[in-house]
Amino acid sequence: MKLDRYDLKILEILSRDGRITKSKLAEAINLSVSPCWERVRRLEKAGIIEGYSARINTAALVRRTPVWVQIELKAHNAESFARFEALVHATPEVTECVAVGGGVDYLIKFEADSIDAYQRRMDAWLTGEAGIERYFTYIVTKAVKCPVPGVSPEDLA
Asked: What is the pTM for the complete model shown?
């Protein structure tokens, strides 16, 4: 599907404010309401817009300690990756995880109640079936740029 500047602007606006009214969205991209809304429906139907949700500021609910971790697995085969990724999905403190190339296998963001709670979780992973060869822990001292619009880095630090 080819996207034009109107489609891209719609996506930009909706990614920041999924609750914007049809008329405000149309006004923001300089189209009338009907053609604008047809574009939104087309983007939804094509699977480009997957849904609408609320971004929850977890720091407002409970104070968490963010920790980034590099993980290298002992074995590099499909079974080892699948077992580790299942463990990640089953761990509520893991809020982000990406597989990467270049020396380590995964980058993980933990949001633990404390550094001690994080370390207890890592100790359990090391003595369990996670298959971790080594890991490197990075304690977040300050959030510089955050992916959540409307939430300042100070709110998350």
From this structure: 0.59
